[in-house]
Amino acid sequence: MSMQYDVRYAVSPQETKQMDTEALRKNFLIETVFAADQIQLTYTHYDRYMAGGAMPVSKSVKLETIDPLKAEFFLERREMGIINVGGAGTVEADGQTFELQNKEALYLGRGTKDVTFSSADGQNPAKFYINSAPAHHAYPSKKVTRKQAEVVELGTLETANARTITKLLIAGVIETCQLQMGMTELKTGSVWNTMPAHSHDRRMEVYLYFDVPAEQSVCHFMGEPTETRHIWMQNEQAVISPPWSVHSGSGTSNYTFIWGMAGENLDYGDMDIRKITELR
Q1: Spatial strand order in the sheet of 115-119
Q2: Is-contact 112 71, C-beta < 8 A?
Q3: Longest C-alpha distance within the chain, in Å?
């Protein structure tokens, strides 16, 4: 079977304070996002969000419903965002064909029934990173290229956080119910993301770290601002960030990550900033 999934339940700040390294990784790290000819998904009870990946190598893979949804088809009551982090590929959705190059995005609206993922070249397969959230309305499916995205330059080399933020599936670029996705690319010599750190109790978030060079890693910081914890992460791994948690990272090299989120509102700037000197 090409569909594989696991389920993660929400945990509180009080529980998280007591977790050791193994427990933190079990609850928040998504260790395997991409597997050959598989769709891998993690269903989290934070805002019923899902994150995972489809990597067609020797054949196309089809999106099927999973038991926790109790739905006739996967997107019966959901919307989906897809960003390709691999080679060129194609998504077929209810008779429409969308070709996605590296770092291009696709939004699939509620009610989309038949979805299939394919790679142009199995030797350099597409890696479709998938996020999905419950949806109350059926917005049209739409591809978004990097040229169509909203791009912001932030940070400085002096503070090691010069970065380019590409807002792909976000209000002002595309209509969604609650799902938002974008990409942050750290410039050479920069390693810190999302500093000063922030939380937003109105929505949860998932990070996918990729473009991490061989033999390098990223240390992801999470937890309450005065009770931070860390998770060491490798290339093409993802991490769940609860609404009450900060979410930032520092790598042993520059890297890229995709942020995806859902919750109370679509205001990208809705953040509770935490001063660097207040972190513990």
Answers
A1: 61-62, 115-119, 89-93, 96-100
A2: no
A3: 53
Judge contact between 259 and 244, C-beta under 8 A.
no
CA distances in angstroms from 162 to 124, 126, 170, 193, listed in the order given: 30, 28, 22, 9
d(CA 113, CA 110): 9
What is the length of the chain? 280
Is residue 220 annotated as involved in ligand binding?
Answer: no
Domain that holds residue 127: 3-137+146-278
Quick: pLDDT tens for 50-94: 999 999 999 999 999 999 999 999 999 999 999 999 999 999 999
SS3 call for 111: coil
Range 64-69, long-range pairs (CB < 8 A, 24+ positions): 64/2, 64/3, 64/39, 66/3, 66/5, 66/41, 68/5, 68/7, 68/43
- Judging by beta carbons within 10 Å of its beta carbon (0-12, 13-18, 19+), is residue 16 exposed, middle or buried? buried
User: What is the number of domains present in the chain?
Assistant: 1
Residue whose token pair is 């929505």: 203
pLDDT tens, residue by residue, 239-280: 999 999 999 999 999 999 999 999 988 888 888 888 999 999
Which residue shows structure tokens 């969000």? 49
CB hemisphere CA count around 93 (13 angstroms): 22
Per-residue pLDDT at 146: 95
230 is an annotated ligand-binding site residue: no
Exposure of 10 by Cβ count < 10 A (0-12 exposed, 13-18 middle, 19+ buried)?
middle
Q: Nearest to residue 55, comparing CAs of 89, 78, 103?
A: 89
As given in the structure block, the two tokens for residue 93 are: 């959705």
In the prediction, which pLDDT does 244 show? 96
Q: For the CA atoms of the chain, what is the radius of gyration?
A: 18
For the domain that residue 61 is a member of, what is the CATH number? 2.60.120.10
* Residue listed under structure tokens 């942050």: 184
What letter represents residue 271's amino acid?
Answer: M
